[in-house]
# Entry
Amino acid sequence: MTPATEPVRPVDLQAVRSQFPILGRKMNGQPLVFLDSAASSQKPVSVLEAMDQYYLTRHANVHRGVYQLSQEATEAFEQARRAVQGFINAASDREIIFTRGATEGINLVASSFGRQFFKPGDEIVLSRLEHHSNIVPWQLIAEQTGAKIRVAPINEAGELLLDEWEKLLNERTKMVTIAHVSNALGSIFPVEELIAKAHERDIPVLLDGAQAVPHLPVDVQALDVDFYVFSAHKMYGPTGIGALYGKEKWLDAMPPYHGGGEMISNVTFEKTTFNELPFKFEAGTPDMAGAVGLEAAILFMEGIGLDTIRQHDKTLLDYATEKLLSVPDLKIFGNARQKTGAVSFLMGNHHPYDVGALLDQQGIAVRTGHHCTQPLMDWYGIPGTVRASFGVYNNLEDIDRLVAGVERAARMLG
Amino acid sequence: MQENPEKKQLDLYGETILRESRSPYHFEKMPEGQTAVEAYNPYCGDKYRLFPEVEEGVIRAIHFHGYGCAVSKASCSVLARELEGKPVEEARALIEGFVAAIRREAIPSDRVALFAAPFLPAADYPGRETCAVLGWEALGRWLEVDDGPARHSF
# Structure
């Protein structure tokens, strides 16, 4: 007998939306419909209040002073680190490195891991769906070390071709890096399977979780992933901060990324020894207020419930998909069986900029263009798409406004 | 800086641009071998080929074909209509005037304002003035090249 699963509590939209004053704004005379959370989500009042309270009552430099205020600031910062640890279920807070965001996390791993482990002829395997930030850092380190990039193909639906991907793995493969969720299409990759197959060959795996953490519960121990990166600003937190999770065995074996204060244990002009984890990778005064804001964002999401957030996103995505497909000549790009957070489309032969600009006239904010995934758009043979992406504050009325807006744009463009 | 929350942009998608993009003038693929000028913006993927026909220092006709946004298409359409029958020297001056007006580097002459007006709001939209001048700048560059029209005039 299967145990009865507890029904997921629906999101209290009125309460959630009241946390986001920006949603009360008007754009071009119309109430704002914000459908660009995949680029950057809006921030709840609780995140801003937490950051204010930190600056107004607890701020001093961290890990430095003997005085109480500095210790309080350090405690606030380290508590934020433990909140991140709990959020993704890392084994230890030593494995959580604060970064400026997912991009810096990938650059850190590419540079530090690459310098230590890549040799000429080694290979890095990624996918055609990657964001530029999961392509370019690897190209940079490949150029320096003589390693090569191998690109795994996808199908028309925006799903990874698993067999083809697996064929790319060999004894020269030194890193597998892949998005957990595609930013351009919303596809969820079968990461458990990918990690298991890579680990059969002792290849470490980095997951770009920037688009996953706002929508899916993530458990890095259950995934057994080697590196996981994400940004706070896509999950209701502040800009300029994010986190890198790395297995301790790797982080210990990797050289520092940036040099400076905080990351050292002893400095002489002859020889410098480096601090322990996680400080080895955190040179300079960190973004303490940002870390506190990230913790508040985690509390905001956990307060709603990650399952509730997931279900709400599914409701929005299913509704948007169905309604958009009822618009004549509208084509959705990315029909993966597992999707979250975004729907990408084109209408007839109209350029995405036209549709985006005409939606903006109606107060509807969507992203248009290549979404930092030019190789993917080239593969589809399109200049870009219109992407509507969702946050926990979006409601079905937002989708109705989007669909009406798209229909109006279609009439105008003819 | 406090922006007005009710601020409304000047409308880039006015009647002229929508009409010109729906039924563009001389929008037609020309046979291989005919002189073609590429107007391409890799950032947004707009890509047109302009087919200027220059005879004895006069632009007899311009056809164009390709893909892009309503603004770039309408702009090429206006270009094809406005420059038809113009001596190359006059066409150059009109192109220069149009581009300067869109980029807000100069106040357009009355002559240029007649056809540039619908495109003037483009500068209020980030990156969109590129759409408005795409075909004009490409043709302007081609006319500047010595062996451009010279080679193809008879």
The first strand of chain A starts at residue 26 and ends at 27. Chain A has a mean pLDDT of 96.
